[in-house]
Structures are given as C-alpha cells and as structure tokens.
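Meet our chain:
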Amino acid sequence: MIRVTPKINIGLRVTGRRPDGFHNIETLFHPVDCFSDTLEIEETGRSGVRMDISSADGSPVGWDPDKDLCAKAYRLLAEDFALPPVKIKLVKGIPVGAGLGGGSADCAATLVELNRLFGLGLDSAALKGYAARLGSDCAFFVDGSPCLAFGRGEVMKAFSPALEDCRIEMAIPEGEHISTAEAYGGLTPRPAEEAVLCCPSHCALEDALRLRVEQWNGLVVNDFEEAVFAAHPAIAALKEDFYRRGAVYASMTGSGAAVYGIFRK
C-alpha cells in the first residue's frame, strides 16, 4: 500500500494563455503532509485496468472511475509495455477540488508503482515524460521535491525555500468548491513584464522566495485570490484567520479552495 501526499502552490502567477488552450504559470510546488490518499495495485485475471475508488470519510466519489487519472496512467504505459491486467484500489483522503493536486499525485504514484512492480526500467526523467502527458502538474509528483514550475507546470527547476524551521497548516472552508473554469474565468492573465509595471511591489518569484518568509506577503502572490475571494468570502476569511493566529505567511493554494498558513516552529 502506498501513501500519497499532495502539494501546495507558494505563489502562483498566470502569465498568459497558450496556443494550445492552456495557460503559462510561474509557481513553486511544495509537498505537504496534511492529507493523504492510499493506493494499492495488484494483478488480476481480468483484462486491462479496473478501478476501485472510495473516500476515506465514506462519502461518494463524483466521477467515473474508468476515467480516473490512475486508469489513464495504466493505459498510457500499456501502449508501450505489455502490462498484465491490474486492479487499482484508491482511497481518497486528499480533498477533491481544493487546489492540492491529489489526482495528479495519484497519477504519478501509479506510474511509479507500475514501473516498480513490473520492472519497466523507466528512470525519473522518463516517468516525468509520461506524467506530463497526463496532467500539467503530474510530473512534479514523480519525485515530489520542492521546485519552481513554469509553462503548464511541467517545466521544473529544483528550488527549496528556507522552511526548515517552519510548519504548514491547512484549512478548507466547508461547502466551498472552486472549479478550474470558474477560477480562470475571473482572471485576466498578463505577461510577466506587464506584471512588473502594474504592481510596483512585484519582484521575480524566485527572488522573492529567497527572502525570509516574513517578507513574502505582498511579494509572493496568487493571481487567483482576488477574484476567488470576492466570490467566496469564506475562503478570504481563512487567510485572514491564519494571520490573526500568528502565521508569517498565508495564501490560497492553486485555484482554491484550500488555504495554508506558514508558522515559525
């Protein structure tokens, strides 16, 4: 059984729409251990892949298991390798639609485990190549080490901010769910050079992340927050609450609805 953990975005700038319909971003992916899924893969006598998905809290999952990213990961590898039929058991403990990348994490874990179980001989770079074909942030979860991410999120550069003496807390407002379409619908992407002119306090994300965490507020920003907070004040209230409780930095992750606070230990 594999324990799968999510990530947060520290800073998230949307710099423009791409010809392929995706958006270019600049962000830092950072692993967190606040929630987890469990994943189990075993051979079966049936053909192809069979998914068994449940929620840790007993609530129903709201999507077709056959279209889950884990099943897609199996089918993608099966195009190039003679994989035996398998059953994938997935128990969801990572909140869905919260901006934590749980589905992408499960997808990458499936690729890594299939590679291990059946001796496919794929190295990290090859696994990331498959992962990038399945989702914009899937490749990050192959290694799961902190990194700056660009393009759709598949272009990565290793980078670890100085958080060794910090702890991260998460909060998710009850009943709030932000779809990707809603989040991008309230956003006006702008190129990085325009962002510098429009926001005097802005500096390059990497430069900002080299500062002490106490200096990040106002410099390390999530472009989705303005529109999401206006439409969902409960999410904005969570961020304010983190600061009231002594967080040195707080932000929404991804396109929401999860919010995190970073505290000094």
Q: What stands out?
A: The longest helix spans residues 102-117. The chain has two domains: 2-158, 166-264. The chain has nine helices and eleven strands. The CA atoms of residues 143 and 189 lie 29 Å apart.
